[in-house]
Design brief:
About 10% of the residues lie in helices and about 55% in strands. It is globular.
């Protein structure tokens, strides 16, 4: 009985293993929609698009009271490796990092250092490949 249980456990672990999904070229020529939310109600929403040869984020940071700060910045230090995507945009001090779930979606988290003492926002959500407007 013990051998059978060990065998079933091994089959379950091996059978459930999924290799990482490569993101492909990110962002490539596509638009990516971002919606990331923190438990305190802060949100980061917008789109990533290529402007010339550089990826750029355009959107807004929304506070829990509904105040929205427009953001339009190039992505700094964009790296992709296997199923991982990581980038920053300044001067907002925002870091976004995540893992590709499939070619069209990245499950991500973000951190925003508000530079005023202990204020620090952390949230999660998704980046989704979008059809570019024509």
């Amino acid at each position: 009985m013990r051998r059978r249980s060990l065998w079933l456990a091994l089959v379950a672990v091996v059978g459930c293993h999924h290799p990482p999904v490569a993101c492909g070229p990110f962002p490539g020529t596509d638009f990516w929609t971002i919606l990331l939310t923190a438990p305190d109600g802060n949100r980061l929403e917008g789109r990533i698009r290529m402007v010339g040869a550089a990826p750029r984020f355009a959107g807004r940071a929304v506070s829990p009271d509904g105040a929205a700060e427009p953001l339009d910045y190039p992505l700094d230090s964009l790296t992709t490796r296997g199923d991982s995507v990581r980038f920053r945009f300044s001067p907002s001090h925002i870091l976004v990092e995540g893992a590709c779930v499939d070619r069209d979606r990245v499950e991500a988290r973000y951190e925003e250092d508000l530079r005023s003492g202990s204020d620090h926002v952390t949230g999660h959500g998704a980046l989704r490949r979008d059809v570019a407007p024509r």
